[in-house]
Specification:
Blueprint: E1 6-10, H1 16-25, E2 29-33, H2 36-39, E3 44-47, H3 52-61, H4 65-73, E4 78-81, H5 83-88, E5 89-92, E6 105-110, E7 121-125, E8 135-139, E9 144-148, E10 153-158, E11 161-167, E12 170-173, H6 184-201
Parallel strand pairs: 1-2, 1-3, 3-4, 4-12, 5-6
Antiparallel strand pairs: 6-9, 7-8, 10-11, 11-12
Length: 202
């Protein structure tokens, strides 16, 4: 059907399969993306969790970093979770040597801000734009947002820290909704992609 968007998951490292499942459950055609040619064929992109430094290096190695930056700058809807949030930040507070980002959201993020792997936790979150009960957020070596610029909208906070942000066609969360079986955050992103397709067709 023409109204079903094609959404890619950047498949360089991280929990790619879980995002593909969640996107399909949210009524999108989901496919892995590793190359510039595959990037050119999608209506939106998810940048998954994993290790932001590794994703950054692999994106450069696979030749998708610059095409990604260009498409995001040109308005491609994009959603980053955990490490993906770091990748969408215009600035990292404590970057590793040589670490690059895609950018797209006027925010400063702090890597691993909520602690190490053994300090992972879950928390119920009220996420603006997601109706119904609170979203169960899974935080695994998660970043938080230190500050946002005037163009970025805060969608959720936990313990006084920003954990979900939207700016135009870009969405980012510190947590992993793909691990919970609750597909409402992915549904929000699919709606963003569908709305962008509608605008582009006018």
């Amino acid at each position: 059907m023409d109204d079903i968007p094609v959404i890619g998951v950047l498949a360089l490292q991280g929990d790619v399969r879980e995002h593909l499942v969640a996107l399909a459950a949210a009524d999108a055609v989901a496919r892995p993306v590793r190359t510039p040619d595959e990037l050119a064929e999608i209506d939106g992109l998810v940048v998954p969790g994993g290790e932001s430094t590794t994703i950054s290096k692999l994106a450069v190695l696979f030749g998708v970093m610059e095409p990604l930056r260009t498409r995001v700058r040109d308005g491609l809807p994009v959603y980053g979770t955990c490490a993906g949030m770091i990748m969408l930040a215009d600035k990292i507070l404590d970057p590793r040597s040589g670490q690059e980002t895609i950018g797209g959201i006027d925010m400063i993020v702090r890597r691993n801000a909520f602690g190490r792997q053994n300090e992972s936790f879950e928390a119920a979150l009220d996420v603006k734009g997601v109706p119904g009960d609170p979203v169960e957020g899974v935080f695994i070596r998660a970043p938080w947002v230190e500050s946002v610029g005037a163009r970025a909208e805060v969608l959720a906070e936990h313990d006084g820290h920003i954990v979900a942000v939207r700016q135009g066609n870009a969405l980012a969360t510190s947590f992993h909704p793909e691990l919970t079986g609750d597909h409402r955050v992915h549904g929000l992103f699919v709606d963003m992609v569908r709305a962008n397709r509608t605008r582009e067709s006018l």
